[in-house]
Amino acid sequence: AGTLGDAAAEKGRYFGTAVAAHHLGEADYTGTLDTEFSSVTPENEMKWDALEPSRNTFTYGNADRIVAHAEARGMQVRGHTLVWHSQLPSWVGSLPAADLRSAMNNHITQVMTHWKGKIAAWDVVNEAFQDGGSGARRSSPFQDKLGDGFIEEAFRTARAADPAAKLCYNDYNTDGVNAKSNAVYAMVKDFKQRGVPIDCVGLQSHFNAQSPVPSDYQANIQRFADLGVDVQITELDIEGSGSAQATSYSNVTKACLAVTRCTGITVWGVTDKYSWRSSGTPLLFDGSYQKKPAYAAVLTAL
Ligand code: XIL
């Protein structure tokens, strides 16, 4: 197949990208998006600060535009993200525990109900674990006031709100086998054993020279899959250029395809022009929407 989306579909997978609503009016941007990709993730438009800037006042417009764009073209949508310490409006952090609990559950319920039946998978909780060797939870209003149980509660609330959506836990620096991914692994194993609803684990997969594609990437994907959850590569970008970058992208693609339950790959942007890595060139299309060697490597690997 001649496009990323079509080639992935032949392998029973999707190939997606993060999308920003304010670029949808740019012809080259939407042209590349619509030609190549079969799934979209709103880059910022479904975060708490965008959707509920003040308590119980919801602003869905920008995210609605992305969902409508995707729906009209038969693309899937990944919802990103319901409960996260970042891009969280300050009013949330100011609430006492009982209020915070009801605000969290209300946010999940309102947002998931708004797009009920339209979102293939939600990142229910994002980045709840610390970096480094401790395997501990990250400090956040949710962790600090509600304790470890906030993640379980968020997933149970999410399942009730939209039973058709796959519910994912998403994080970074969990791409290889390490203390942080071990902690996520233990949580997912516990959830599966106790019947807490979880369907998927998202590996963000932001790579650079300091944090390259781990040699045990496939093994890590496989061990999560063996717990009975799908794995999705959710925010892939790899700093660099030329053949080195292409090889890394190829390795990521091959690792996912080698695991039956690795159901799709999302790159974190259409073009280097708008990457969140402001000075970097971590994506598949350059700033002029030309296909890079990394693009060809992914298409060959698919
Ligand atoms: C980033 C966006 O790409 C930026 O535009 C924004 O300023 C900050 O957030 N992990 C995540 C994503 O889960 O939501 C982040 O996206 C990148 C890191």
UniProtKB/TrEMBL annotation:
Species lineage: Bacteria, Bacillati, Actinomycetota, Actinomycetes, Kitasatosporales
This enzyme's EC code(s): 3.2.1.8
A biological process term (GO) from this entry: xylan catabolic process
One GO MF term: polysaccharide binding
Domain annotation GH10: ranges: 1-301
Family the entry assigns: Belongs to the glycosyl hydrolase 10 (cellulase F) family.
Active site: E235
Keywords, sorted A to Z: Carbohydrate metabolism, Glycosidase, Hydrolase, Polysaccharide degradation, Signal, Xylan degradation
Protein name, UniProt field: Beta-xylanase
Coiled-coil spans in chain: none
Catalytic activity: Endohydrolysis of (1->4)-beta-D-xylosidic linkages in xylans
Species of origin: Streptomyces genisteinicus
